[in-house]
Each structure stands twice: as C-alpha cells, then as structure tokens.
Amino acid sequence: MTCPQKTIDIVESCLRKYPCEVDVCYNEPMAEHCTFKAGGPADCWLRPVGDNFPAFVTALLAAAWEENIPVFVLGGGANILVSDAGIEGVVLDTGGWTGVVTGGLTGEAGRGDGILTFRSGTALDDACEIAAAAGLSGLEFFAGMPGSAGGAVWMNARCYGKEVSDVLVETECINFSVSPPEIKRLPAVKTEFGYKRSPFQGSDLFILSTVFRVTPKDPGLIRAEADSYRLDRENKGHYRFPSAGSVFKNDESFGKPTGKIIDELGMRGLQIGGAQVAPWHGNIIINTGNATAADIRNLTVEVAARVKAGAGLTLEPEIIFTGRWEK
Fold it and tell me: Which fold has domain 100-233?
C-alpha cells in the first residue's frame, strides 16, 4: 500500500520548519517495532531525535489532525498488535526522545526525597538502570519491563504490587485541546489513575517527559532487587518467544489471576496458526515464529470465548489492537 502524498507533504513541510534528525520510512513493517514481531506496514513511520523534537511533534500532530490523518504514538511497542493490513496515517515513534532531563535530590515537599525526569521515549529498563547508578530507589519494578516511560504512564503499567502512579510526580505534556497547542506540566493526582487506566487515555495530551519520585538507597541493594525482577521475568518465560506479556487484565472480582483461570480451563498450548497460549502460562500468547496478527487476535478472541463459556467471566484484553482490522 502506497503512503498518500498528503501525508508525505505534511512530514516534509514540518521538517523544513523544525529541522531535526529523523528516521522516516514509508510502508514500514510494524513487525519490526512491536514485541509480538507481527503486523503489517505503517503508511509512514518516523522517529525524530534532537532538541527540536517538541516543536516538530507539535507541528506534525496539529497538521495531521487538521487534515484528518490519523497519528498513532508508539512507545516501546510492548502492548500493541497492528493488523496484517497495516496502519493508516503516521506512526510517531518516541524511541528517539530518551534520557534524563534533570536529576538529583531536590528535597521535594521537604521530605528529602528526590526526583528523576525522563524523556517519554526512555526504555523502562534504562530508567531503572539510570536510577540505580545514581543510588536512587523506587523504580526497581521497571527492571526488565518492556515499554517506554511515556507509554507506562499512559497505561499506568503495573507489576510486583506497584504501579507507575505510585511513583509518578508529574508529567510534561503538549496540550492539543487549545489552539495553538501549549506545553503544560500536570501534577499526578492518584485518584485519576486506576488499574491499567490513566487520565491520558482518550485525551488530547502528548506526554513529553515523566517525573518520578525516588529515594536514596545503597546502589548494591537497588541492583539486587532489580536483578531479582529481571530473573523472575526470565524464569516466567517472558523472553522465550515474541509476546506482549499479559494478554488480559486481571479482575479482582474473579477471585484469582486470569492466567490461573485460563490454565484451569486447559488452554495452555492452545494454538491458532503461529500463535499459541504459552505452554507455561495461560495469560501469555506467544508468536512461535510465523504468527500473523490475525492468528494472535483470533487466539485472543477464542480464549476469551472459552473463559466466558466455561467460567462465565468476561475477559478484557490489555493489548491494543490498532490498524486496518476488518470489522
């Protein structure tokens, strides 16, 4: 499928106005940019780098939306599945907007705590390592977690009894609900977050940076805890095959983890095409090597249907299905 000329013109116009280093690919396979290693091409995939990132992104998104060109903001690609038919419009990859913006102890709120501010495309495991190297604790549960800082805030990612909103202080965002768009800082309000839910979902806000609360601690102890989480993920098979981690959300009203429910219904190893329910964990679907996006989605639908029939429970996917899916 050929990228529409209107999309190409907008990208090139924004680059002339706000020059920055940028990788631009038309008809780029999204299998290269998501952890499932499946999915069709993006009309236009681009990854801007450099100090002009905020200005370029502001211009690009405003121009695209004015022309009714869809824009999908890509973090680490850890929780998405793009249709085999690809994805329309622009995929804006934040993976070139990384690193610490500011850091160190601030005595924030007079508590002697510190903060670390990361650009939104920073990989979560990198954020954990940066904090550990500085002797700052609080982000250990990021260790080995796929995804980006901005994506984790958007999803309110959760693991090992902690969620991102537990350590989030504020975000710096581009607010597209006003004209012209403006950059604003938003303090984190805990009550606005929930299980895999944040106030950024469905909003006109683009996350530029994330500010996390950290506390001084012995670097050796920080690394020991972080390494224990990486080892646990490895032992649970998170890295054996391409996957998106947990497929379905856990619901406390079910009385047990979703993976256990799927296990009890005998679905470990269930396979459609190249997609398989992991033989070692009911709530992980893996790409055994040649899975199409349709295989993965069909297996997700089949598992949910069997749980509904066998246990009377309605599962909600964590995976975001995006792109040109048939209705």
Answer: 3.30.465
Set 88, 163, 172, 318: catalytic member: 318
Of 83, 120, 148, 246, the active-site residue reads: 246
What is the third-level CATH fold of 239-322?
A: 3.90.78
Whether 246 is a known active-site residue: answer: yes
Q: Using CA atoms, how far apart are residues 262 and 99, in angstroms rounded to an integer?
A: 39
For domain 5-96, give its CATH number from 2.170.270.10, 3.30.43.10, 3.20.20.30, 3.30.160.270: 3.30.43.10
Residue type, 199: P
Q: What is the pLDDT of residues 140-180, one digit of tens each?
A: 999 999 999 999 999 999 988 899 999 999 999 999 999 99
> Residue for token digits 């610490």?
100
Q: Domain residues of the chain, as ranges?
A: 5-96, 100-233, 239-322
pLDDT at 3: 85
Give the integer Cα–Cα distance in Å for 121 and 85.
26
Tokens at 233, concatenated: 């993920």
pLDDT digits (tens, 9 = 90+) for 60-92: 999 999 999 999 999 999 999 999 999 999 999
